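Molecular record:
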Amino acid sequence: MHGRRLVILIAGNFFVATSFMSVSGLLNEIAVSLQISVAKAGALIAAFALTAGFFAPVLATFGSRIDRRYLLTGALAVCALASGLAAASDNYRHLLLARIVAAAASAVYTPQVAAAVSMLTPEKDRAPVLGKLMLGWAIGSVVGGPLTVLIGGQFGWRTAMACIGAGGVAVSLLVWRAVPSNVHVPALNLQRWIEVARSPALRWLMLTTALNTAGNHFVFSYLAPTLSALHQVSGSVLSALYFVSGLGGLAGSVWAVSILARVSAARVAYWSTGVVIVVYLVWPLCAPWLPLLFTLQFLWSAGSAGFPSVQQSRFVAVAPTLASATIAMNSSLGYLGNSVGTSLGGSAWLWVGPRFLPWLGVVFLAASLFCSAASERATKIART
């Protein structure tokens, strides 16, 4: 695939990632501005994820016959508009509606750009290229997330949302010029979804995605209020933590992509999840020391970012002809896992407090490892 085109498509994922992560870093500001609790502000994250999770397979099906240029550009443009509406919202209800619109549009771009790229890339190059696409999410963590926190802390969360909307308009125009016309994926229908549902390997992979994402967002969605509660940090210090988190995410994504040619995607997924489990186990013990939390955040983000970079490749490898369906379902379950993890994390916050959330999150990650191994076994059985 042409290098410039790939960079622009990665930029699309960067915008989607920044839009998705924006509320997490601005929870404190939104809660104060709208005079709501942190838990209610956290519901914005869950609602976004739940909406995206629902619409990813639905829009993949109804949009499967649409030219990729129109579909991808339109998704980014609607998401940009929704960010502008969020900036203009004057109450919680309007903000929630704007985030729901942004979520529906976001549900299209990430899975369908991967499906489109899989059609434009030779089979031998697909895994590394699909991994590179997810670098946009990692760069969103290292640049978009911290920048959103910094702008929100200095000028207010509405200004941060407006900046995201303006950036989205620019990216959508670039994607329009980068994607060739008349690029189509195999049309999705009920029979193809039945094929997906009948595959044991794909079912286990779906559970792997959902549980892994739930385990990560059980804790990560409440990172800002957690650090505020434990160390009374805000503003530039919190922005620095998100920057470190982004650096870890970028490092983890680059590492995962760089070794895919030598190591199986499944093994990379095991390693990535294992790193996060170790971090979760020691995090509550290190919670009193802020410098240690910065170090652990880097490792945590490196591990969690390595997982989605390879998970898409695993779905395509199991069933290449079903890529547009399975990648959409992978994205859907990732968002749904996010919603479930965020919702349960908010309840656990009231039960055990912020310090010990990671110990509960380990349960999801351990279950994810089990499902990942089960998928590999099912794949081997199917090929014998």
